[in-house]
Design a protein that fits this description.
alpha/beta, Spore Coat Polysaccharide Biosynthesis Protein SpsA, Chain A, globular
Length: 282
């Protein structure tokens, strides 16, 4: 039985990540060969096959290439013609793997990488709008959803963050974030590139969550982030947020959360697709 630290290591958390940085770089650089000649890769993370297949079809409809990763507890989904499967965990071998892991090292294997949550679906016009927006980003720019955390955190700016609900990064943005120690992972004050004691102490005043470092990059390192309005995509976000009848299953608040069971228990993909006008892609 793996320890809690082993479960958290693959979620994108510097407090628990135990792979030597040089080794992690070598592994990430190895993903580059799968993306040869792919200009517009879009990361899709499988936690439930039917959701992944629909996401792949949406990405293809927008003219991008689905790059399909997966949680090792679920395994790879069926791959739609034109999509590319990458086992990001082949050499890491974590019991859980979140998309935050390849996203942190994007600069090592691609010039541009779009991404979204496994539980997000959107209408085709929204998909087209996002795809055009992501394609327009210049190297060094990125895009993501700003999250103030609701009313309880609205007046606590050090708890605000950019959210990986959907977005796109470019090589130079990703690289600059990494070498300033301000990437996507949790506990960014423990980033291996944050080495000054005074700077670590300053960062300890901020929330631990993923994406806090991205906002810190914008505010402290002149990072260029083009925000995505949450209103554009929230109707297709199939999570517990705003869902008063959401049924949380055991381990809901831990790295062992079974998102596949939760999403399939709480949402009918057929009904969601019909509501968004994309049932024809099922």
């Amino acid at each position: 039985m793996e320890s809690m630290a082993e479960w958290r290591a693959g979620t994108g958390d510097w407090k628990y990540f135990n792979v030597p940085l040089e080794q992690a770089f070598d592994i990430a650089a190895g993903w580059k060969s799968a993306l040869k000649d792919v200009r517009q890769p879009w990361l899709c993370w499988n936690v439930s096959p039917r959701w992944s297949i629909l996401q792949q079809k949406l990405v293809l409809a927008a003219g991008w290439t689905p790059i399909v990763g997966f949680d090792p507890r679920v395994g790879p989904p069926p791959i739609v013609d034109g999509a590319i499967l990458i086992d990001f965990n082949e050499k890491l071998r974590f019991p859980v793997l979140w998309p935050h892991v390849p996203l942190e090292f994007a600069f090592l294997f691609t010039d541009r990488l779009a991404f979204w949550h496994a539980d997000l679906l959107v209408r085709l016009p929204v998909m087209t709008r996002l795809a055009q927006h992501f394609a327009s980003l210049q190297d060094g720019e990125m895009s993501a959803v700003f999250d103030s955390g609701g009313l309880s955190r609205r007046l606590k700016p050090k708890m605000h963050r950019f959210w990986e609900l959907c977005g796109c990064t470019t090589k130079s943005a990703s690289e600059n974030q990494f070498y300033n120690g301000t990437g996507w992972w949790r506990h960014f004050q423990l980033h291996p590139k944050c080495v000054l004691k005074k700077e670590r102490a300053r960062r300890n005043n901020y929330d631990y969550d993923s994406g806090v470092g991205i906002l810190y990059w914008k505010n402290n390192y002149n990072g260029c982030i083009k925000s995505i309005d949450i209103k554009l995509v929230k109707e297709g976000h199939c999570s517990e947020i705003g869902n008063k009848s959401y049924r949380a299953l055991p381990d809901h608040l831990t790295a062992m959360r079974d998102l596949k069971s939760e999403i399939d228990t709480n949402y009918s993909i057929d009904q969601v697709a019909a509501r968004l006008g994309i049932a024809n892609l099922l």
